[in-house]
Specification:
By secondary structure, the protein is of the alpha+beta class. It folds into two domains: about 100 residues, HIT-like (HIT family, subunit A); about 25 residues, no CATH class. The protein contains three helices and five strands, in the order E-E-E-H-E-E-H-H. The protein has a five-stranded antiparallel beta sheet with strand order 1-2-3-5-4, covered by helices on one side. The longest helix has 22 residues.
Length: about 140
């Protein structure tokens, strides 16, 4: 997708609520939970790993800043923080971005497994191992 057609290259400035020299943060247009935020590099790259190490560090600094703001504003019980890197991993907008998704106790019947639910048949690893503490 060329930058002139990329929704992350030309976001509505009113939606941006945090930024640094390298990245911006704004609410996800299709939030999974209240506060679901995207951190998006200002430079148009498809993968976070196309950024320099310094740029990646600045992006992660903004992730931490957003997490702290969400913690203060919404007081969630936890977070899912994730990247869909490439179409095979579910990336639909080919501009790198990180999801910060606040979670609350009870917002899912059984949140164990977290991101493992992308492959439901592999999500409940603790049933095979006998312990939820053997894997992350």
């Amino acid at each position: 997708m060329p930058p002139d057609r990329c929704p992350f290259c030309n976001p509505d400035p009113a939606r941006i609520y945090a930024e640094n020299d390298v990245a911006i943060a704004f609410p996800d247009a299709y939030p999974i939970t209240e506060g679901h935020t995207l951190i998006v590099p200002k430079r148009h790259v498809a993968s976070l790993f196309d950024l320099s190490e310094a740029e990646q560090a600045a992006v992660w600094q903004l992730v931490a800043q957003v997490r702290a703001k969400l913690w203060h504003d919404l007081n969630p019980d936890g977070y899912n923080i994730g990247i869909n890197d490439g179409p095979a991993a579910g990336q639909t907008i080919l501009h790198a971005h990180i999801h910060v998704i606040p979670r609350r106790k009870g917002d899912s019947p059984d949140p164990r497994g977290g991101v493992r639910w992308i492959k439901p048949e592999k999500a409940r690893y603790w049933k095979d191992s006998g312990s939820a503490d053997t894997h992350a």
